Write the structure tokens for this entry.
Amino acid sequence: MRKQQTLIKSTYFSGIGLHSGKPTSIALHPAPPNTGVIFVKQMGDEMVSCPATIQYLEQTDHCTTLQSTNFKIQTVEHILSALAGFEIDNAYVEVQGDEIPAADGSAAPFVEIIEECGITPQEAPRNYIKIVQPIHVEGEQRSITVLPSALPRISYFIDFPHPLIQQQDYQHSCTPQEFSKNIAAARTFAFRQEVEFLWARGLGLGGSLYNTVVFSESGLVNEEKLRFHDECVRHKIMDLIGDLSLLGSPVIGHFEANRAGHLLHTQLVQAILDNPDKWILLNAGTTNKSSILNGTAATTANTHCLHELQPAFHSV
């Protein structure tokens, strides 16, 4: 039986927000068993929280944003992808600001600080959602399906009318080793003609050639070459892994994504919760389906531990 995992120690990372363009920082902290991943923020004398579950999804416009009663946190998909990719079940993500740092546009810097912290097993079973019947969502010639499978897998296909992208597909076996080697370093990408459009909407204000792969009409604006010939589809897989973690439990199934994105990713998460007859729980311990469906499988059990958390930041 697989055990839950958390970080051995706390760590810190700072930068600017991809969309806000403002300075922002995070600190990763170990968390007790059955906590899940919780975003926390010091507000006055109080530590407030926003669990990383679909129940707190606020919007998916070019990024994934969560919002609780107390605060909103933008662009969470890369840090969530790094935690899920390394099978970390329990962690507090303390934030200073309203957005996760963009870093280099990939999950690789977050992987580095996780590896520096180290990972430790905990005395609680890791429960899995095992798909037993297909679940499918679609819209505007885009779709994503999860099928029964002996092991977690992702097949992703994209199609962009650009000579450096065109049709790309990638098959990912969901293990920490494969994530670190083949997925984590894939960067956010955009097209030059989209940049001004994003700026006009108040998005992408922190975007640069350091944290975004920018394609011109026929080539690449960045001086740095692509890290993979199919970097774009690998980044889509990284986003999907982060968005799927909003289920609160890992999934054993085969995900087949066709031109999908954050909106369809999160719609599939909700569809899984809406179809409890199409999956079973494995290694559940005291966890049951109702707690997962209500978003309480992990987070409510240990929000009371927040007062014991030693914050890295202090409100001004």
User: Anything to note?
Assistant: Residues 231-244 form the longest helix (14 residues). The radius of gyration is 19 Å.
